[in-house]
Design brief:
By secondary structure, this protein is an alpha/beta fold. The chain contains 28 helices and 15 strands. Strand 14 and strand 15 form a beta hairpin. Belongs to the helicase family. RecQ subfamily.
Length: 648
């Protein structure tokens, strides 16, 4: 009997997937895929951004290839339908949309089933359930859709269920938290898997599934007993992500959020997670008001919002703008963006009053997804002083259930045990390892990527091990930089210089030949603005290199940039010389006009005749006319006349 979970099986899977995927799989990914191909249920707990999607996509690509190749069917012993199907439950619509784009890029026919897509299709006269039954390879649905008549019709079709080879649940940890909190459909996913038949393999993935009760609850929910499933648990610590805890100085229940004034000044791509849509709207308004006071910034482009009230198309447009546009710096988000959203250029993630450790780690997991673009990612929790006191009570009581607290809002909130331990821990990484039962070290990977770029050994840089000095929230008047008149750049000069530097940016982008990094990574608009603001303080190329030391993608082109700045300097001097000539010409014309007026006899005679007694108008003393006390003197004279009349 052929086993995929063998050296021959691993080799065959890599051979099949090599021409189908734009990347090489890690060993732990191949391990899970092969277990699924052997018909064993899989529970994979790996870090955010580690490639959990491959457990679904690569598995289906292998099944498709085997179903089309008779020799592979004979070799592996798999009897497959012509079109094997997988159903995957995703917790958010945004994640469904993003995964659909990815699956389609691999050539997998994908249908997304949620209330929004089904309604839109119905308006256009299309039954999306019928489309899924006949044409789909990947069916992505929201958990609540399993309770609809359309889903019942789908799985009651015997031909469809025979083709269904896998049922997946991404972010399966949410079955614990969201299933208890507001969406009971998450708890019904395990029961739904049993309706699909024993030939349907189960694939569960997450980055945050704590040891003990949380793991046991998931296993019971999906009917997985010991020995009936394969567990892959890798450390979910992200060594390239710095975890920071800051205590709020101001309130977050009003309309002023002074603790976040530094965000716009940092110029770092930032996602801010708020506790509710209402709080997000208030923070969005506050940040846009701050941005409106910064010259050259469009507040609506600089700060965007992502939440469940937005149309899916709008949320997708916000993500694309953040991914590709340098002007979009901040996204104010809610839990709708918490899981699965893959933005490669997020530098900072800020979380307001986190209560649950799973949710906190999922949210900050949006940062630093691509180490080629983001070299220093940060996940920052903003907590209240009351939360610290509550955490101490929870640890002292040593119970798992939440304890009520208030932090300035109208309703009470709660902390779970994991979050309480994280708040009080001297080392945040150690607390995370303990809560999730992370292995001391992951087994080494033998893929070509890890061989070329072996994982770096990092020392812990959390705020417990490396205390930070948080930014000052009080507003200080910015020192004004004195600029000499002959060094001041006019609006015309700046426009011309920005055009040239943008052209230079496009030139080095094409020279680099990278299809991964967008052009603005090499020379961002904010860097161009800074170069022009400090243009005459850069006296040599060493100063320029020091000023741009953090722009690693630009450093190979420093010499060319210095030559371009020299060209700008020459151009500025030419423009100033032309402006000086224009000023001299205007001054000369004005002088000539004054001389012509002085020599004009008609002009002089007209002035004399107007100011003479013969014209019938009284001559006025200019000193009296311009005296500030003239009105007061008149008033005094009038008062004296009135007094004299009374005496008479």
């Amino acid at each position: 009997m052929f086993l995929f979970s063998s050296p021959d099986g691993h080799s065959l899977v890599r051979q099949i997937l090599k021409p189908k995927l734009p990347y090489e799989l890690h060993d732990f990914q191949v391990e899970g895929i092969c277990k699924s191909l052997d018909g064993v249920s899989l529970l994979a707990v790996t870090p955010t951004g580690s490639g959990k999607t491959a457990y679904y996509a690569a598995y289906m690509l292998v099944l498709q290839e085997i179903s089309r190749d008779v020799q592979l069917q004979e070799r592996t012993g798999l009897d497959l339908p012509d079109n094997p199907v997988m159903i995957i439950a995703y917790p958010t619509i945004g994640l469904e949309v993003e995964m659909a784009v990815y699956f389609r890029s691999l050539g997998l026919n994908t249908v997304v089933l949620n209330h929004h897509t089904v309604s839109e299709a119905r308006i256009q006269g299309v039954n999306l359930w019928t489309t899924a039954r006949k044409d789909a390879t990947m069916i992505l649905l929201s958990p609540e859709m399993i309770a609809t008549p359309g889903y019942d019709t789908l799985i009651e079709d015997e031909g469809f269920t025979n083709c269904t080879r896998a049922f997946g649940v991404d972010e399966v940890h949410l079955c614990n938290f969201w299933g208890e909190k507001f969406c009971l459909a998450f708890k019904q996913l395990g029961w739904n898997h049993r309706r699909l038949g024993s030939h349907t393999v189960l694939i569960l993935t997450t980055a945050t599934l704590a040891k003990g009760r949380d793991t046991n609850t998931i296993l019971d929910m999906f009917g997985l007993d010991s020995g009936e499933y394969h567990l892959i648990r890798r450390s979910n610590v992200r060594r390239n992500l710095q975890i920071i805890f800051r205590v709020l100085n101001g309130s977050i229940s009003g309309s002023v959020f002074s603790d976040f004034d530094w965000v716009l000044k940092s110029h770092r791509k930032t996602v801010i997670f708020c506790r509710s849509i209402k709080q997000g709207d208030r923070l969005l308004t506050y940040l846009r008001l701050l941005a409106s006071k910064i010259p050259g910034i469009n507040p609506k482009n600089r700060i965007r919002s992502y939440n469940a009230l937005n149309w899916p198309d709008l949320n997708a447009e916000v993500l694309e703008s953040f991914r590709h546009m340098a002007d979009t710096q901040v996204i104010v988000a809610t839990d709708a963006m918490m899981v699965g959203i893959d933005l490669p250029n997020v530098e900072d993630v800020l979380v307001l009053s986190p209560e649950n450790l799973d949710e906190f780690l999922q949210k900050i997991g949006r940062a630093g997804r691509s180490q080629l673009i983001v070299m220093k990612a940060r996940g920052i929790a903003f907590i209240t002083k009351q939360a610290i006191q509550l955490a101490k009570k929870i640890i002292a009581a040593d119970h798992q259930k939440s304890v009520k607290r208030t932090d300035g809002g109208k309703r009470g909130h709660s902390l779970d045990m994991g979050m309480a331990c994280m708040i009080l821990a001297d080392c945040k990484t150690e607390a995370q390892n303990n809560h999730y039962n992370n292995p001391p070290s992951d087994s080494p990977c033998g893929c070509a990527t890890c061989h070329r770029f072996p994982p770096a050994i990092h020392t812990c840089c959390c705020s417990g091990c490396v205390p930070e000095t948080p930014p000052v929230t009080s507003r200080k008047r910015k020192a004004r930089v004195m600029v000499l008149d002959d060094e001041r750049l006019s609006e015309e000069m700046r426009t011309w210089a920005k055009t040239r530097l943008t052209t230079f940016r496009n030139m080095i982008y094409h020279d680099a030949g990278s299809s991964i990094l967008p052009p603005y990574i090499y020379l961002p608009d904010l860097t161009i603005q800074t170069l022009l603001d400090e243009f005459y303080t850069l006296h040599d190329i060493d100063q320029l290199r020091l000023r741009l030391a953090k722009r690693t993608h630009l450093l190979p082109y420093i010499d060319a940039l210095w030559d371009e700045l020299h060209t700008l300097r020459v151009g500025f001097e030419t423009m100033r010389h032309r402006e000086d000539q224009d000023k001299e010409l205007r001054a000369e014309r004005t002088h000539q006009e004054k001389e012509e007026w002085a020599n004009d006899e008609n002009f002089i005679s007209g002035v004399l005749s107007f100011d003479s007694p013969q014209c019938g108008l009284p001559l006025m003393d200019s000193s009296i006319h311009n005296s500030p006390g003239r009105k007061r003197a008149g008033s005094s004279h009038k008062s004296q006349s009135t007094a004299s009349k009374r005496q008479r």
